[in-house]
Amino acid sequence: MLHLKENEKVLLITRRHWLVLVFHILPTALAFSAIVIAILLLPFVSLGPLSDWLAETFPIAEYSAKITVAFLLALLLLILWEVIFMQVAHYYLDTWVVTDQRTVHTELLGLFNRFLTSIYHHQIQDVSVDVKGILPTFMNYGNVQIQTAGAHREFVFREIPEPYKTKELIVQAQFTFLRELQESGSSPENVEKEQKPEELARDD
Q1: Helix (H, G, I), strand (E, B), or coil: what is residue 59?
Q2: Does residue 204 belong to any structural domain of this protein?
Q3: Secondary structure letter of residue 140 according to DSSP
Q4: pTM attached to this predicted model
Q5: Sign of torsion, CA 152 153 159 161?
Q6: CA dihedral 4, 143, 89, 148 (to 10 degrees)
């Protein structure tokens, strides 16, 4: 769970374009549908050579062979369902958050393992947009790359919607952040050391 520092405001919460999720899920979903259809049709078709092989290998009748095949297909369905679940979880939980002080990336590494990285706006050296291909151009999604002076030399928003708008938001947030630091006389190091977090509500 991401926490905000005192007086920190969220400007943007974004994730990969929905079309990216569709492309990731589509092959698995098609395989899932094909297996469901195969299970439904199994009582009405003959297994042919497969039935003979099962009868020779295991002393079972044809109806038992069909039950065995249906059981194996059901196990495969469970595996595919888990794959789809993880793809959706990665899509929803892999987020990029832009606040008035920093940019944060939360990445799902495992079912109960999330990795969070953040950079403050004063560490940003350059922001660029990378949109490649006809479909990303037409659907307006791509990468936003941030070059930094921190430990993470490159910070990338991957395949997000409206990348040019996101770039403008980050640049404007950096400008405002640096101006407020200058006006208040605070140093960037003092901002990074603030330790009064409040929970970020995920109501997007």
Answers
A1: coil
A2: no
A3: T
A4: 0.76
A5: positive
A6: -40
